[in-house]
Amino acid sequence: MKSLKEKQAKVFETLGAELGLTNVMQTPKINKIVVNVGTGTMQKKDRHKNDFIAEQLAIITGQKPSGRKAKQSIAGFKSREGDVVGQAVTLRGEQMHSFFDKLVNIALPRTKDFRGLETKSIDEMGNLTIGIKEHTIFPETGDEELHNIFGLSVTVVTTAKDKESAEAYLRFLGVPFKKLDAEAQKAQAEEDRKAKARKAQQKAELAKAEAAEAAEEAGTVVTAEDAGVVEEATEEKTEA
């Protein structure tokens, strides 16, 4: 079984033509992996929950997590500013490679009724976010902790330029996505096309607005309607 490092070395050679890469420096890669656990509601039932989750995350990821504090007080959630409401770990380098291999090859296949990840888990920036319901899919957790099961989210941050490139890249690395039938593939392609069209339209509108604002500041904007008003005023002045 090939590791992430071994597969990464062959990305340009294998996917270069498909992704339109002309330089090895354009090759997508995993920048970091972020593991998050929210403890807001659990903390109210058990004061030691944060400590337990921090300990388990350290065992699973091999790195000590940092507490995430509430930025403001919200009465509806019974949270105060400064309360620890979650734990997070950011993995890079060797620990990131090791965790990715373990996640893809061991943990995800151990998930109950696992049928593959949805491709819509990839956002437009090329990052993959996975929601895991039970932390016990990782082999480091013991059976004696079954009464303290918690969920977590894993975000794989890549340097891929868009969703399609990220999907092809992650599939090559071995991420188990669902295999879609012909109809589902067609619907997914149509949805991706519409999303890309919306994004292009938003970019065009933003660029147009910025150009108009810049021209207005420079005092060079004269619309057709304004030009007509200026001509009429000039004619009236000439006649007088």
Would you kindly provide a written description of the structure presented here, covering whatever features stand out?
- The protein is α+β, with helices and mostly antiparallel strands.
- The chain has 2 domains: 4-179, 2-Layer Sandwich (50s Ribosomal Protein L5, Chain: A), CATH 3.30.1440.10; 193-239, no CATH class.
- Helices cover 47% and strands 14% of the residues.
- It is built from 8 helices and 5 strands, in the order ααβααββαββααα.
- It has helices at residues 4-8, 11-19, 40-45, 49-61, 93-107, 163-173, 182-218, 224-239, and strands at residues 30-38, 66-69, 84-91, 128-132, 152-158.
- Strands 2-3-1-5-4 form a 5-stranded antiparallel sheet.
- The protein starts with a helix and ends with a helix.
Q: If you compute it from the alpha carbons, what radius of gyration comes out, rounded to the nearest whole angstrom?
A: 26 Å
Strand order of the largest sheet: 2-3-1-5-4
> What is the CATH-assigned architecture of the largest domain?
2-Layer Sandwich
Strand residues, percent:
5-15%
Summarize the structure.
By secondary structure, the chain is an alpha+beta fold.
Pick out its properties.
240 residues, alpha+beta, 50s Ribosomal Protein L5, Chain: A, five-stranded antiparallel β-sheet, 14% strand, globular
